[in-house]
Structure formats: C-alpha cells, structure tokens
Specification:
Elements: H1 3-14, E1 18-19, E2 23-30, E3 33-40, H2 42-45, H3 48-60, E4 72-77, E5 80-86, E6 91-93, H4 94-100, H5 110-127, E7 140-143, E8 149-151, H6 164-167, H7 177-182, H8 187-201, H9 209-218, H10 230-267, H11 307-315, H12 321-357, H13 366-391, H14 395-428
Antiparallel strand pairs: 1-2, 2-3, 3-5, 4-5, 6-7, 7-8
Helix pairs in contact: 5-8, 8-9, 9-10, 10-12, 12-13, 12-14, 13-14
Length: 429
C-alpha cells in the first residue's frame, strides 16, 4: 500500500455521515482537498421532480446576499444529480454542535442571536416568495468556530413532489401538517417550522418565559391559529422579553425596599410594659392616662374598616418561590457591588491620604497643608463618582460609603502619626 492509498484508507475509516432529509452530510476528499457534501438519497436522486427542484433552488439563491444563506454546486453524471457540494469552508450541523457542546445554549446571546439570524433570513426569503419549511437542527449548518446558522436548500422549491412525506422522511415532526398533507405552503408554514426549531434548540435547557407561549401558538395544527407572519412572531418574542426584563427591575426595586423595611423594624425596640403605683403603694389596674386619651387611640388588633385600605391589602399576593429567589439574587449582587466599591476606593484613599499624613512631620506651612488636603479630597470624591458609574451604584450611596471610608482612614492614619511622633521623642531622649 502506497502513501496515497494509506491516506484514502484512513479517510474511509474516519468518515462520519449525518442523516438529513435529502441525504447524508459528510466530509470527503475531492482533488486532494476536503469538501463538505450532501450525498443524495437514491430514491430522491431518481426523481425528475426533485432534480428539477434542486436546479430551481440553486438558481433562486444565487442573488440572495444574506450572510446566513449557504450556496452550493451540483454534481451529476450520466445517471443524474447525485451530490450537493457546499461552498468552500469547514461546516457542521447545528445538531452536531449541540451534541459536542451542550452547554453552549447557556452562553450569553447564543440562543437569541441564533433565532434572530434564522428569522432574518426567513423574512428575506418571504419577500422573494421562498419558504424554507423545515428548520430541523440536522438541516441547519454552522461554520466551525463561528457558530452562526446557515441554511442550504429551501423546501418550497420541491412542492411539485406530491408526496412530501417521502421528501421529509424521518423529519415529519419539523414540517407543518398542511405541507405534508396537501403540498401547500405559505408564511404560516414557516412559522410552524420555526416554532419546532425553537423547541428543539431549547430542549435541554427548557423554554424560557419569552418562548413558551410563542412556541405553543406557532405550532398550532390549524394555520389560522398561528402567527400570520414571522415578523408578528418575532414581535411577540421581543414583547415578552421586554416584560421579563421589566419584572427583573421591579424585583430588584422590591428587594431594596425589603431591605430598608427589614432594617427599619430591626432598629425599633420592643414596647415595654409599665406598671403604675398609686400613693398607697398599690398597683394601678390600668394606665391612669388611658382615660384622658381613650377616644384618640384605635385598637391595633381590630380589623381595618377603611374600605380603600381593605381592598389594597386584599390585592397583595404572597411572593412565590421564584420571586423570593429573584430578590435574594438581587440582594447578593448589590452586596458584591458594594464590596467591590469599598475595596477599590479604600486602596485609592489609603494611598492619597498617606501623602497628607506623611508630610505632617516635614516642614510644611499650614496653608500648604490645607491646600494639599483639599486637593486630595476633591480627587477622592471625583474617583468615587467614576467608580459608582463603573459598579452601577447610585451616586448617593457611593458618596456615603466614600465619606465613611475616608473618616475611618483618617482616624487610623492620625493614630499612626501620634505613635511615630511619640517613638521619635523617646529615641531623642
């Protein structure tokens, strides 16, 4: 076996094929270069309607300039078209990516960017009268290292095939019922397929708040019950995402209010019981002042009789476990931000204040000392303002913490100056 035969033998062992509706996707060597191809199913390759659909599809995408459209060439011989040759590049299917890196769905922006990219191209295709019809994870490609979705062939090019179930054999769940049953398609058909795509994309992590209801409506069996267009579907997702973020902001505000209320009540002392004794040394049965103010106090154990207050109290629902967790997370984040601010500001303040107290033993006039102190204070409070913007802390809280840290450091540094002065005096004696 020569060297070339050995390489071919190794390639044959290493080849992995991945099933798609139209055939098998794999990497092969063509003219000493590796190319990614889709080898067509033999039953489809023999169909004149399918071959005509491929040529129609290839021509229709030549003028599509969207970055998420993958172009290709057709390989054919005397028996007809047998293979789709993807444009040069290194590819894998989205299903392969999720299988090799399942945690990628938790990566910030991955799910949102992937769905937006697919919807962008789909809306552009609809403007040209083209429908994709099947967004199975096995039919969507990504360039290795980029993870940006790419679409290949579009289903509307093959609607001339009466038996659509044969075309999407093994992937029927990803295609709208009207396409499989009647070979008819419109924008609502792609809405259904996109709903299935989102459902499979988030299968391992679970559908979030902004997707759950949208997927349910998009995958309705009856086309009239779905979104009328991809734009309407996308608008609903954005609205729900915005609502979720607003809820987070409200939860954070409630967390702050909760902390303030808890601190307030912790500072209020328990009421003490006072016994009154008359001139004969006998304990009074009641507060001698109670009769004077009897009409001005209300029994705090009695229920609220004000109808407006009663309605308000009835409208307050107990917090759910999820809301409690959100509040706890918000408090934890605030504590971390405060800790970062204090640590960084203390380092800066210790250095700056050290220059002031370090110069007290030198020959420095009072006016110079005061001027230097004022300059350092201005620099520190300006730094506190900048640091508050970086950490997201309010300017008021930042100023309060800065003043507290400066006061503590001034006491500490003043004590050091006194100790050093006393030690110097002892050494001189």
């Amino acid at each position: 076996m020569n060297y070339e035969e050995m390489l071919n033998s190794q390639d044959a062992v290493a080849v992995r094929r991945y099933a798609m509706p139209f055939g098998d996707f794999y990497r092969k060597q063509i003219d000493r270069k590796y190319r990614y191809v889709v080898e067509l199913r033999s039953d489809l390759a023999d169909s004149l309607f399918f071959a005509e659909g491929l040529r129609k599809d290839q021509q229709s995408i030549k003028n599509i300039g969207n970055a998420h459209q993958l172009k290709y060439e057709l390989h054919e011989d005397s028996g007809g078209i047998y293979e789709i040759d993807l444009q040069p590049g290194s590819y894998m299917t989205l299903a392969q990516l999720l299988s090799s890196q399942p945690a990628i769905v938790a990566q910030k922006g991955f799910v949102e960017d992937t769905i937006n990219a697919v919807m962008d191209l789909t809306e552009h295709l609809h403007e040209l009268g083209i429908y994709h019809l099947c967004y199975s994870l096995q039919t969507i490609f990504v360039r290795k290292g980029e993870n940006k979705p790419l679409l290949l062939c579009h289903g509307s090019s093959f609607l001339a095939i009466k038996d659509q179930r044969l075309l999407y054999q093994g992937f029927e769940d990803d295609v709208a019922p009207e396409v499989l049953n009647d070979a008819k398609a419109d924008e609502r058909s792609d809405v259904y397929a996109l709903g299935r795509f989102i459902e499979h994309l988030l299968e391992s992590s679970g559908l979030g708040y902004e997707y759950k209801g949208v997927v349910k409506k998009a995958t309705s069996e009856a086309p009239d019950e779905r979104y009328a267009s991809v734009a309407e579907m996308r608008s609903c997702i954005r609205h729900k995402r915005s609502t979720r973020r607003s809820l987070w902001l409200v939860a954070a505000a409630c967390a702050v209010v909760g902390v303030v209320v808890a601190v307030f009540f912790s500072l209020i002392s328990e009421p003490s019981t006072v016994e009154f004794i008359d001139d004969n040394g006998v304990k009074a049965k009641s507060d001698p002042f109670s009769e004077v103010y009897e009409d001005e106090f209300v029994d705090d154990q009695a229920p609220y009789t004000d109808p407006e207050i009663a309605v308000y109290l009835d409208s307050i629902a107990p917090m759910t476990d999820e809301e409690v967790k959100m509040l706890s997370d918000s408090i934890r984040v605030n504590e971390q931000l405060n800790s970062i601010f204090r640590r960084r500001f203390e380092q800066k303040a210790r250095t700056q204040l050290g220059t002031i107290y370090g110069s007290q033993g030198n020959e420095t006039t009072e006016s110079d000392y005061v001027g230097q102190s004022q300059k350092v204070m201005d620099e520190l409070y300006n730094y506190a303002t900048e640091l508050s913007k970086e950490t997201g802390i309010s300017a008021e809280d930042a100023g309060s913490m800065a003043s507290q840290i400066i006061s503590q450091l001034q006491v500490e540094l003043q004590e050091n100056v006194k100790r050093n002065g006393a030690q110097t005096k002892q050494d001189e004696e």
